[in-house]
Structure formats: structure tokens, C-alpha cells
Amino acid sequence: MQPALAAWLALSLLAGTGAEGMCGEPPAAPSRSIAAPQLSPEERLSPHMPESLRCDACHAIAFQIEEQLRRAEGKVGRKALSESDYVEVLERSCSQGWESYGVQELNGEKRLAGPGLPSQEPMSVMVTGGPWPSRLSKMCHGYVGEQGEAQIYGAHRRGPAAVRELLCHGEKGACAGGKAGGPSPPKALQNEL
Question: pTM for the complete prediction?
Fold first, then answer.
């Protein structure tokens, strides 16, 4: 029996009939194609954060401010920071590199992605760098200038959600009312004298 098996194996190899012929080709791995988000001219070129991404940007800024203040307080034993310390921390928060943030497209909607923002689709392309870091830095400095360091630090001391609420969801916040991705409601017309 063994000589017959050896002869059959030798003849099969010489004839070129190997496992491929008997079993067929191995299945091809499924391929996926993921395109980068298509950015509009405003999204690519404007120095300002596009309106549709301002709420996400505000949440990213609030997260970074909270993280920086929490770390600074951890270094002093969770005590309240002095005014000069929290002013310095807020300046550092806004001046940091924002390179870990970028834009992803999910179900046809562009969203800002990065630390402190809701997780996005793991199989997607994120466009980072370019105008996004400077836009986030400018927005952060704008919030600190508008709200004031003392008010932001006071919100931080009240709890983690208070900074987000102050910056993003207040009356003029980026996530207030119709600003969270949709058009702003029309302004009421003023009567002329």
C-alpha cells in the first residue's frame, strides 16, 4: 500500500495537481475601502472653527481644561490652586498642542474626534493637523477671555460637568439651542423708530 501511495504522490506532483487543484483557491480576504472626509473650502481654509463642529470643539476644550486643572490640583494634594496657578494652567491648556484632534466622517456627518469626545467609528479616517489645532487654541483662548479664569476655575471646583456646562451649554454656548450642528434660529426683527 505504501509504494502505491508514494507512486500516486509522485505522479500528482509531477502532473502539477497539488492541494490547490483539489481544494480550490484559498478565499480572498475581504477588502474595505475607507475614504477620508471630504472637507468643504470653509473646513479646509477658514481660520475659524466651522459652525457645525463648534459644539464638539467646545467639549474637547472643556475636557482639556478639566484634565489640566485636575492634574495641577493633584500635584498640590487636591487643594484649591492659587489664582496665579490656575491662570497659568488655563493659559497652558489653551496653548498646548491640539494635534490629537481631527475630523472624521460618520454616516455622512463630519464630527470632531479626539480625547474627551465620544468614541467614533474605529474603522474610519481622521484628518488631523492642518487648521484644527490653531482653531481649537483660538476657541479656548476666546472662552477663557469671555468667561474669565476665576469663573472657569470656580466651575471646575463645583464638579467635572460644570466646566462643560459653563462653556458649551450656557445661553451663548456652542451647544445651546439650534447651534449644535443645525442652523441658528432666525433673529427677531427690531422695530425702527
Answer: 0.72
